[in-house]
Design goal:
By secondary structure, this protein is of the alpha/beta class. The protein has one domain: Aromatic compound dioxygenase (Protocatechuate 3,4-Dioxygenase, subunit A). It is built from six helices and twelve strands. Strands 1, 4, 10, 11 and 12 form a five-stranded mixed β-sheet that branches. A five-stranded mixed β-sheet has the order 3-2-7-8-9, with no helix packed on it. Helix 4 packs parallel to helix 6. The radius of gyration is 22 Å and the shape is globular. It starts with 8 loop residues before the first helix and ends in a 16-residue tail after the last strand.
């Protein structure tokens, strides 16, 4: 047994990972050990501070339930989620940029026809978001699916608000033969991320605000193409430059044009081929 010292402890901790059978797990644990030990050596926390950190993470776990994922919220707020997203989804010419998923996506949203509203309570200012889904060369993709969700005018997702109908402002739309879609919803508003838990307490302690700029979430998918998880942000929102979860990208800014008929946003989504290959599906329905 090696006698403990600050100088030899890292080498001993890494040596004990030598029998790890999974090479990726070994790589991850070695990197985690090196960086964690370096953090401890730099910060030199007291035992009370270390325990406080453990209690914080424990409280984050306790805040998670079937409709709220506090660890995702924490990852978003410290900027880790958008960094991981950027590493895994490099910007590609002709393809829509991705951004964070967020903690409030739900599977199995209702299906709507193009031009049909996904607002079930009729509250808020109606907006039409329309455009096309294309491949990276601009060819239309028929049969692409757009999974869309957002908060209501009160800044709450329906899972946070018992007064909203189930699956309010969530919907699945499908592009037509020329790759066109039309989502009818309500004008989004800026809103605070849930800050009644430990992640929100950390934000306040750091002197940061909890607000996200107004946005609509999208997952755009089509057979033979990489799906994109993204958001469209209202371009003149007060929080565009200080999004609490670092999710804003210039290419995802959307301009709302208003007239006597209501609000309208024009935006085309681009998908890159799965696996990096070339694929065109102009004018054909996907299964």
């Amino acid at each position: 047994m090696t006698e403990f010292s600050e100088e030899n402890h890292l080498a001993e901790a890494l040596r004990r990972l030598d029998s790890t059978a999974d090479p990726r797990l070994k790589q991850v644990m070695e990197a985690l050990t090196r960086h964690l030990f370096a953090f401890v050596q730099e910060v030199r926390p007291t035992e009370a501070e270390w325990m406080r950190g453990i209690e914080f993470l424990t409280n984050v776990g306790h805040k998670c339930d079937g409709t709220r994922q506090e660890f995702i919220l924490l990852s978003d707020m410290i900027g880790a989620s958008i960094l991981i997203d950027g590493i895994n989804h490099r910007k590609a010419e002709g393809a829509t940029e991705s951004t964070v998923l967020g903690p409030f996506h739900r599977a199995d949203a209702p299906r709507y026809d193009n031009g049909q509203s996904m607002s079930q309570d009729g509250k808020g200012e109606e907006v039409r978001i329309l455009g096309r889904v294309t491949d990276s060369q601009g060819n239309p993709i028929a049969g692409a699916t757009l999974d869309v969700w957002q908060t209501a005018a009160n800044g709450l997702y329906e899972v946070q608000d018992a007064g909203q109908p189930d699956f309010n402002l969530r919907g699945l739309y499908t592009t037509d033969d020329i790759g066109a879609y039309e989502v009818v919803t309500v004008k989004p508003v800026s809103y605070p991320v849930p800050d009644d838990g430990p992640a929100g307490q950390l934000l306040r302690t750091l002197g940061r605000h909890p607000y996200r700029p107004a946005h609509v979430h999208f997952i755009v998918a089509a057979e033979g193409f990489e799906s994109v998880v993204t958001q469209l942000f209202t371009d003149n929102d007060d929080y565009i430059d200080s999004d609490a979860v670092f999710g804003v990208k210039d290419s995802l800014l959307a301009h709302y044009n208003g007239d006597a008929t209501g609000w309208r946003v024009d935006y085309d989504f681009g998908l890159k081929p799965a696996g990096g290959g070339e694929q065109h599906r102009t004018g054909s329905k996907s299964t």
